[in-house]
Design brief:
Blueprint (H helix, E strand, L loop, with lengths): L2 H25 L1 H4 L17 H22 L2 H21 L3 E3 L6 E3 L14 H22 L5
Antiparallel strand pairs: 1-2
Helix pairs in contact: 1-3, 1-4, 3-4, 4-5
């Protein structure tokens, strides 16, 4: 096993995951301030400014993709970037206000129950987006296995 390659893969993937989480919370600050479960997070509670959170998330994301690009390989970096983009650019904004429940046109509106979705369950679209994101994470894990001598 190449321990240095493994270390860079873990560091890059961790930085991307942290960047995703930070940018997600930055994008959802207004909604998080309405839900009891998320009101005490640093952004809605005012402990961190939006500008600081944005730049922290961007730096983590850039460092993570950069580590994967320059210290592992192009495919791993591309998969990490794809996971980042699919989560921050697609998943987070698409689930924000109105989420289609099914093709028939029903919608779920966010509420203040704590789970963020009216009715207490994820919509079909949210589950599809989760699956889409997870497929990138599984592919990244497959690349990660290339670090191991089997």
């Amino acid at each position: 096993m190449d321990k240095i390659l493994l270390l860079y893969t873990l560091l890059g993937s961790t930085a991307i995951a942290a960047g995703c989480g930070t940018l997600n919370q930055w994008l959802e600050t207004d909604t998080d301030s309405l839900m009891i479960r998320t009101q005490k997070r640093p952004l809605p509670a005012g402990r961190v400014t939006g500008q600081n959170a944005f730049w922290f998330g961007m730096i983590l994301s850039i460092v993570g993709v950069g580590l994967l690009e320059f210290k592992t390989n192009d495919l791993t970096a591309l998969l990490g970037l794809s996971a980042l983009v699919s989560y921050v650019v697609l998943y987070t904004p698409l689930k924000k206000d109105n989420v289609p429940l099914h093709r028939g046109g029903g919608y779920s509106r966010r509420d203040s129950s704590g789970d963020g979705m009216g009715g207490g369950s994820k919509s079909d679209w949210a589950r599809r987006l989760d699956s889409f994101r997870d497929s990138f994470l599984l592919a990244d894990a497959a690349c990660f296995n290339n670090c191991m001598d089997v």
